[in-house]
Description:
Elements: H1 5-28, E1 42-46, E2 51-55, H2 56-73
Antiparallel strand pairs: 1-2
Amino acid sequence: MTDFSGIGKILIVFGLITAGVGLLFVLGGKGFLSWVGRLPGDFSWQGRNLHVFFPLATSLLVSLVLSLLWIFLNRK
């Protein structure tokens, strides 16, 4: 018989993370996270018919948070 409890735990954690990110987006529309995408290292260039946005600082911050979360969840 196959044990699916490990997959179940992963799905629960993934669901909680997804719900948390969704909550941050809902609160972010009200100014709570209005700084996301406007950090000093986020680059924006606008031409006549083209707008290029590269959120370098925001990407690094999100990567750091997710890495710390991954390390915390994988501790035994």
